[in-house]
């Protein structure tokens, strides 16, 4: 065999090993992660590489997730020697109504309002449960001239509550964990509503984050990312790398409920405080949308309180109270209103008079005339609630009903809910369900 033939064989062998290390061959022609999005535009996503250093300071360690708005990465701040989460927004116009996109990003504006409110008010309790922006800047897009990528940095969080719930054995949180999560969320909302004048508009389990017991865990995570094989696809068109997101499954035993954070202000409305009203708009995740939005009425900060009520039922019962799915828009407005009517009872007439569409669903006596569930839905709070017993069950149902009321002004505020007897009571855990707060969370997780 000639020397050239040996060289060629060696080259092919090296290419094979390089390719096997960098990507799964069966994924080479298949769409991966953000490529699977319905409206994916490759020119709008900033191509990043693991090991790359942004602005000579932030080293990319691994990919944590993706979505229609961009990608999320774990990075290391070489200046402060700390770990941060980077959210890279898809390329957007540098100027929007005369302002840079950074100044019109709700995430950044909400952060500024929170910080200003904290400096203005002597009592800023609640801001510690809000996921603030640590740093943000713009990077010009090379693939979309005239557009820029907004880069937003946050302190890292180990897992969101929605993902954590799916990992748990019985898919529900025990009473102690539930109280700790809800107290953190309500403290955050109390600060947002009364001090910062912000309505979050997207309170759901996916946007509630749990930290680790100790921040040093992120060093261990970074070391794991450095050693593990990362599934990678190389785009044929421009050789960009598309990485499969990593998870923190091996570190879930380090989850803490001591400082739960409310994050993602991408849907937030500014300048709306307790008692303020805004004109109707279509907002909120379908499953958490209150009746005033379904019926095209004005709305206010109690929109978030309704969402906490729906969230409470989901975390404690592993059910969406008004039906549907977290993942798809499967129900109509009529479907949701029909279920609300059955669960909450008929709405007050003076509430229906506020809506231009109420007569489609109710008559002049507030009797339901829309379509009904097949088979018909029957409801009893006592029968449906399955996590608590006796006095605690009754207190828990009263807590829920204080948030899930037809008229927004009848719902208790976040400040009032923080004083609720159930939220502050100390009941004994069920004997058949271990309370894992104060012990290892692994007690509530499936065995490996």
Automatic annotation (TrEMBL):
Organism: Dissoconium aciculare CBS 342.82
Protein name: Kinase-like protein
PANTHER family reported for this sequence: SERINE/THREONINE-PROTEIN KINASE DOA-RELATED, SERINE_THREONINE-PROTEIN KINASE DOA
UniProt-recorded Gene Ontology molecular function terms: ATP binding; protein serine/threonine kinase activity
GO biological process, any: regulation of RNA splicing
Domain Protein kinase span(s) in chain numbering: 58-423
UniProt KW keywords: ATP-binding, Kinase, Nucleotide-binding, Serine/threonine-protein kinase, Transferase
Recorded superkingdom: Eukaryota
InterPro entries: CLK_kinases, Kinase-like_dom_sf, Prot_kinase_dom, Ser/Thr_kinase_AS
Gene3D superfamilies documented for this protein: Phosphorylase Kinase, domain 1, Transferase(Phosphotransferase) domain 1
Gene Ontology CC annotation, any one: nucleus
């Amino acid at each position: 065999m000639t020397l050239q033939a040996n060289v060629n064989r060696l080259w092919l062998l090296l290419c094979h090993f390089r390719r096997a290390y960098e990507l799964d061959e069966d994924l080479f022609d298949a769409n991966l992660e953000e490529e699977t999005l319905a409206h994916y535009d490759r020119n709008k996503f900033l191509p990043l590489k693991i090991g790359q250093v942004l602005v000579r300071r932030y080293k990319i360690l691994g990919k944590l997730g993706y979505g229609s708005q961009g990608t999320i990465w774990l990075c290391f701040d070489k200046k402060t020697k700390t770990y941060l989460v980077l959210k890279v927004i898809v390329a957007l116009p540098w100027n929007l109504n005369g302002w840079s996109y950074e100044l019109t990003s709700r995430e950044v504006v909400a952060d500024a309002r929170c910080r200003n409110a904290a400096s203005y008010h002597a009592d800023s309790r609640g801001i510690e449960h809000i996921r603030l922006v640590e740093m943000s800047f713009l990077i010009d897009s090379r693939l979309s001239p005239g557009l820029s990528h907004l880069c937003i940095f946050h302190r890292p969080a180990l897992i969101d509550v929605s993902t954590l719930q799916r990992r748990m054995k019985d898919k529900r949180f025990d009473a102690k964990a539930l109280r700790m999560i809800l107290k953190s969320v309500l403290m955050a909302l109390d600060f947002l509503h009364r001090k910062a004048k912000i309505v979050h508009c997207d309170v759901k389990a996916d946007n509630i984050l749990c930290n680790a017991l100790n921040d040093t865990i992120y060093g261990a995570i970074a070391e794991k990312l450095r050693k593990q094989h990362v599934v990678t696809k190389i785009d044929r068109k421009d050789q960009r790398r598309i990485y499969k997101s990593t998870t923190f499954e091996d570190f879930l035993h380090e989850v803490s409920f001591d400082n739960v954070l409310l994050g993602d202000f991408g849907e937030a409305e500014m300048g709306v405080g307790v008692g303020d009203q805004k004109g109707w708009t279509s907002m909120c995740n379908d499953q958490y949308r209150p009746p005033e939005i379904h019926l095209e009425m004005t709305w206010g900060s109690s929109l978030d309180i309704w969402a906490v009520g729906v969230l409470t039922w989901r975390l404690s019962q592993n059910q969406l109270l008004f039906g549907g799915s977290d993942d798809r828009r499967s129900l109509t407005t009529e479907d949701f209103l029909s279920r609300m009517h059955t669960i909450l009872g008929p709405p007050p007439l003076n509430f229906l008079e506020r809506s231009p569409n109420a007569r489609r669903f109710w008559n002049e006596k507030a009797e339901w005339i829309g379509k009904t569930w097949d088979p018909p839905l029957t409801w009893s709070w006592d029968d449906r609630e399955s996590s608590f017993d006796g006095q605690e069950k009754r207190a828990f149902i009263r807590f829920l009903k204080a948030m899930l009321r037809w008229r927004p002004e009848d719902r208790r505020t976040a400040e009032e809910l923080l004083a609720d007897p159930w939220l502050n009571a100390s009941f004994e855990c069920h004997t058949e369900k271990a309370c894992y707060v104060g012990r290892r969370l692994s007690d509530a997780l499936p065995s490996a």
